[in-house]
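Researcher: Before we compare anything, I want clean individual predictions. No alignment, no superposition, just each chain on its own. First chain goes here; please echo the sequence and then give the structure tokens.
Model: Echoing the first chain and its structure:
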Amino acid sequence: MQISFDKIPVETVPHMRGGEKEVFLQKFIHGPMKVLRGVLPPGATIGPHVHETNSEVIYILSGTGKVLFRDTWEPLAPGACHYCPKGESHSLVNDSGEALTFFAVVPEQ
């Protein structure tokens, strides 16, 4: 099944998970599976949160930033892939001067 993000409306999410500014998301949901394309403008963040019932894979398409995982900041750039296992927490930060665009998969477990 092909997912065409160009046909999915953009949802503006202010202060996602207690983060700064707003995040722009396009969501495809199929049963327990979520597939997302997101954009964090400069200075925007997704606040720290625990994946209690699912995991998440984030792949960076463009821009740079960082993710906080297990008390360690990991740099992100195009082609970087971050995995947050079930039961762990993370936070996504755009600390650059350009938009950070990412692709994410969140399967319920």
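Researcher: Okay. Second chain, same rules.
Model: Second chain and its structure:
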Amino acid sequence: MLKTIIMDFDGLIVDTEVVWYQIYVEWLREQKDYALTVQEFLTCVGSTPEDLFDKLDRGGIHVDRAQFARDTTARFLEESAFLPAKHGVEDFLRAAKENGLYVSLATSAGLKKPTVHLERLGLMRYFDLLVTAEDVERVKPYPDLFLKTAEKLGCSPAECLVVEDSLNGLTAGRNAGMRVLIVPNDVTRYCAFEGQYRLCGSLADVDVPALIADF
């Protein structure tokens, strides 16, 4: 029986991944004369940039993490400040609550960013719980965020549906023993998704009562 919807944030609720990708591409081109590919960027989508930066380090392209943060954070905040919710997000959240489901956020980001955007967009009222990188030792692709959510809401993994846009999110959900609904964005559509419960082009395509009946 489905009891809980666990939502990612970046790239699923608000399309911040496209903003970040352009920032990464331009910074690495200007600072390191390096042409970052989408496939390389995908290694850190839904997780942290460390895997990407470690790979670049091994290839002789050293990224000073502190400098990168100083150079890019303000630009990201400015360019993402007025992004709308993605198509179908609010209708999906509303339907989940109307059908008696818990709704939680589980993100590899810290608490501040999703809180600011959810309040700005009027979506916070749909969420029963926010679980972030500050609540666990390991973020995606490890299952900790999802397992912590289930624990806090008193649900088993079999009673949870993870909604994700990234390969790291899919891996984390499967590692948690949960079904994963994938809704790619313009960056993560290049991922080779395998093993998901379902893949949809938009949350507007998802019928919540049908999901409940399928569980």
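Researcher: What stands out in the second chain?
Model: The first strand starts at residue 4 and ends at 7. Additionally, The chain has a mean pLDDT of 95.
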